[in-house]
Write a structure and sequence with these properties.
By secondary structure, the protein is an alpha/beta fold. 50% of the residues lie in helices and 10% in strands. The strands form 4 sheets. It has a 6-stranded parallel beta sheet with strand order 12-11-10-13-14-15, sandwiched between helices. The radius of gyration is 25 Å and the shape is globular. The chain binds iron/sulfur cluster (SF4) and Broken Fe4S4 cluster. Broken Fe4S4 cluster binds next to helix 13 and helix 23.
Amino acid sequence: MEKQKVLSKKEGIDIGNVTICEATKQMLEKARKDGVETAFDRAASMRACPIGKDSACCKHCAMGPCRLNAKDPYGKVGVCGATIDTIMARNFARMIAAGGAAHTDHGMSMLDLFREVIKGNITDYEIKDPIKLEEVATSIGIEVDGRETKDIAMDLYEELERTYTQVEGEIPFAKRVPEKTLETWRKLGIVPRGAMREIMELMHRSHMGVDQHYENITRQCSRTALADGWGGSMVATEISDILFGTPSPVSVEVNMGVLKEDQVNIIVHGHEPNLFESMLVSVNEPTLVQAAKDAGASGINLVGMCCSGLEMFVRHGVPHAGNFMSTEAVLVTGAVDAMTVDVQCIKQGLAKVAECYGTPLITTNPRCRIEGAQHIEFNEHHPTASTDEIVIKAISRFKNRTAKIEIPKIVNKGVHGFSHEYINYMLGGSFRASYAPLNDNIINGRIRGVAGVVGCTNPRVKQDWVHVELVKELIKKDVLVLQTGCSQIALTKAGLTTPEAAILAGPGLQEVCETVGMPPVLGIGACVDNSRILIAASAMVRQGGLGDSIADLPVAGAAPEYMSEKAICIGQYFVASGVYTVFGVTFPIVEETKFHKLLFEGLEEQGLGKWGFSPDPYEMARMMIAHIDKKRKQLGIDKARDRVLMDMADRREMGAAYQQA
Ligand code: SF4
Ligand code: MSK
C-alpha cells in the first residue's frame, strides 16, 4: 500500500473533535495508523485564506488579482476602480452561476432521459408514476383528461424544455408560485427566463467592466437562483419522481455498519438516480450474483452515499453509508470493493484513498473524470452494460482483497421519503389530502413554524454536530423540521428521524407527531429536492390562513455546515422566494458593507426573504425562532400559541394534581 504523508502528532487533527460520527472517528484512527490522509487532515493543515474567506479579492482580469482589506473595506479599490461591494457581489454571483448550473444541468440530464424514454429510444427505464405525470402536467396548464400518457408526457417534455432554453417570458413552473410572491418578483424584474439565459447573463454581468452596481448584480443573482429552484432543480425532482417513482416513507439503515465483510460491497456516490437505478438491476442479475458467490462472497451489497444514496433509499430502501465528510473514511474500512461516482461533491482526494486500499474508484459521467480513477462511461441507451462491468470489477476486487478490513459496527435507522405528495396525504388522509391540518396546527400554535435544515458537512466545523444541535433546539421549541441533502444523514445517525424521536420535541409538536405517527424531522430527499420545500411552502400559502405569500409564512431555513456553491445558490433562491435563511461555517462577505446590508436586511424590505449567519447552532436556532415568532405576530396568531402552551402546562399540572389525589 502506498503511504501518504502522515501528519505529525503536533500538526495532526484531534480526531475526537472533528466529528461526532463515531464510525468516521473510528476510520480516521485507522487512517492515521495506515498513514492515509483525508480532508479533515488537509483542512487542519491548510488555514482558509482570510482575504478569500471574506470574498475581498478579485481575479476577474489580468490587471489584478486585486486584494482589498476586509478590516478597512472602503479604504482601497481594485486597479479598475471596483469597490468592495462590486467585488463581493460579482464573486457571489459567480458562486450562484456555478451552483445553479450544477443542479440545472443535472435537471436537464433527467429531462433528456425523459424525452428518450417517451420516444421509445431508451427502453430500460419507463414512466413509473403516471399519476405524478398528470399532476405535474396539470400544474402548468397541460390538458390531461382523456389523453394517452405518452401524449401528455410529450407535451410536458416540450413545455419543461423551456425551463432551460426560454429566451423571453416566464419559465413554466412560475405558474406554481403563490400569486403575491410572483407579483413581487415581477415588480423587481426577477421572474426567471430559461436557466441557460440567466446563467449566461450572470456570467456576462460579473465579467470585468460590466455590471458594477451591487444592487443590480444582486437582482440577477436572485433571478438566476430562482431559475434553479423553481426551474432546473424542480424539473430534476419532478422528472425523477415520474421516471423512478415518487418517494413515500420507508425505514432505512444508515452508517458504515451497512457494509458487509462477507459480501461484495459497491458504493454509489454522486447525484444522478439513473446510474444507481441501473446498478440496482445489475446487482440483482442472477449471473452476477452467481459470479459473486463463485468468488466466495455471500452476495452483493449495494450501498449509497451522499445525495445518490438519498435518491435511492427513499425509493428503494437501499442502505446509506454516510454523508459528504464520510466518503473518504468509508474507503478506509478496506471493505469497499468498488466506489462508483457520477457528478457533484466527489472529492478528488478519494482517488488517493481508494488507491491506498485497492478499491476501484470508477467515474461514469463524461462531465466528471478524476486523475487516477478508472472511467467506465454510463450510457443510458445500454445502462446495464456499464453497471454490469462495474459489478464484475467489484467481484474481482473482492476475490483479490488484500487490505485489512475493519467495519465500524454501527447501524442507525430512520424513516425517510416524505415527498410533498406524501406530506399532503399523511396530513389530510387519502380522501381529502390537504395541508389544512398542518396550517391548522400552526395557527393553533401546536406547531410553532416550519424550518428547512439542509445541506452539506464541512471539515471546517465538527461534522454533524451543528446540524444535530440546531435541529434538537428547533424541535424542542415546537418547530417542525424538513430536511434535504447530507444533513438528514447526520440526523438519522443521531436518531432523530424516527417517530419515537417525537419524545424530544416540544409538547405541541410531540402531540402532532404522535397523532400522525411521524418523526419531528422529515427527510424529503437529495439536495436537488429542495424544490419539494418550495412546493410545500406554496401549498401552505394556498391552503390559507398563513398569509398571501411565502414571505408571510412562519418558516425559516438553514444550511449549518454548507460547503458547496450549490448551497449558496439554494440559499439565494430561498431568500428570493421569501424565506429567512441562515448559513453556518462562514459567509463570504465583509460585514458592515453595503452589499452585506442588502443581503441581510435590504432584500426583506423589498418583500423577499433575507440572509442570516451564525456558526453557533444555538444562536442559529434562536435567530430562526425569533423570525418565526415575528411572522406569527404579523399574522396575528401569536396569542393562539400562548394559549396552547398554557393548555399543555395546565394539563400537566392537572395530571400531577390528579396523581397526588
Ligand atoms: Fe482587479 Fe478590477 Fe481586474 Fe478585478 S476586474 S482583478 S478588481 S482590476
Ligand atoms: S451531496 S451539495 S455535500 S448536501 Fe448533494 Fe451533500 Fe451538500 Fe453535496
